[in-house]
Predict the structure.
Amino acid sequence: MSNFPFQRLQADLAALISRSPAGTRLPSEPDLAKQLSVSRATLREAMRTFETQGLIRRRQGAGTFVVGQVPILDSGLEVLESLETMAQRLGLEVSVSDLEIEGVFADQEHADVLNLPLASKMTRVRRVVRADNRPVAYLIDTLPEEILKADQLPDSFKGSVLDFLLHRGDPLTVSRAAVSATNATADVAKALEIQRGDVLLAFVAQLYTADGKVADHSVSYFIPGYFNFHVVRRVGNNKN
């Protein structure tokens, strides 16, 4: 019975969100907490459930807004494909904003990951992926300059480094990724128009060439609720 008040709060919030048109600004946190007779801390905890479902979006300094029905990008993790390819396969419209392409020098972390000498020249590509003009992912790719120079990306670049390399004919073979939940840092939160500390799904991956070299180190942040990633696994004793 101890969870009943919290469940009732979630039900009240769900009702409020469902009857509010997309784009509606919800009452301020103090006003909504008072309206629902709960503490701000309890309200904030309950609202995170709806944030992770992509139903509401908090914007720093602006308030909390109802998102409405969101497009879901559904994909298995067995085959590496870009968000653009995934969206095209599912018939969804995505776009890229805040594109930054710059030449940088390898710090110790990237020198280790990319197996480069310290201060080697690299190319960094940062961008935000949007669905229905809403930020849904923030992608950062870092590549050795011998793989990609900043001026090699065409004006028609749509945001996928993977697609560019494949189209160019680079001999890419496998990608290894670590998947985890993380909290948005200040810069990531700003890019995704969310609150610092909000929960995100993070992929940290290395893309390898046929000769075993790391061609790309990528860090991708996804807003939960917009993505459905799954894995098809073979049963261990099945020899087929």
